[in-house]
From TrEMBL:
It comes from the Bacteria. It comes from Pseudomonas songnenensis. Residues 1-17 form the signal peptide. This is Lipoprotein. Keywords: Signal.
C-alpha cells in the first residue's frame, strides 16, 4: 500500500509540472530559477498582479517585473551559535528590450542577508539585475 501511495504522490508531482502553459510566441517567456533550496515567485508585471507565480510571460518592450524570493540566512552569517533565519524579500527588475518569442531566465540567490536576482538571455548573458525592495522574517509574519 505504501508503494502505491508513493507512486501516486510522484505521479501528482509530474502532473503539476506538466500543467505549465505553452509559451505564447507573441510574448517573451521568463523562467524562474531559484538558487539552491529557496523559493522564487513571480508577483506582478508593470504593477498588475499575476495569477500564476511559477513564471513570467510578458509583451515585448519595457517591463517591470516584481518577484518574491524566500531563502534562509545561515546561522554562521548571524553570529556564533545562531540558528538559520528565514528571509522573505521583494525584488523588482526593469528591462526595456523584451522580445516576442524569446526565452529568458531569472536566477535568484542570496549573499548573507541580501537577496539578488539576475535576468539572462538564451546565450547566458546577464541583461539586468534586480533591486531589493524590502525583506522580512518569515517567522514574524
Amino acid at each position: 500500500m505504501r508503494g502505491f501511495l508513493f507512486l501516486l504522490f510522484l505521479a501528482s508531482l509530474t502532473g503539476c509540472a506538466a500543467m505549465m502553459p505553452k509559451p505564447d510566441p507573441e510574448q517573451a517567456w521568463i523562467d524562474l530559477n531559484p538558487n539552491g533550496e529557496t523559493e522564487l515567485q513571480a508577483v506582478a508585471v508593470d504593477g498588475r498582479t499575476l495569477e500564476d507565480p511559477r513564471y513570467f510571460q510578458v509583451t515585448p518592450g519595457s517591463r517591470k517585473l516584481e518577484m518574491r524570493y524566500r531563502f534562509d540566512v545561515d546561522g554562521a552569517n548571524i553570529g556564533p551559535g545562531s540558528s538559520a533565519l528565514a528571509r522573505d524579500c521583494k525584488l523588482t527588475l526593469e528591462y526595456d528590450r523584451f522580445t516576442a518569442g524569446a526565452r529568458y531566465r531569472l536566477v535568484a540567490g542570496g549573499y548573507g542577508f541580501r537577496p539578488w536576482a539576475k535576468l539572462y538571455d538564451q546565450h547566458q548573458y546577464v541583461l539586468a539585475r534586480a533591486e531589493e525592495k524590502g525583506c522580512g522574517d518569515l517567522a514574524g509574519r
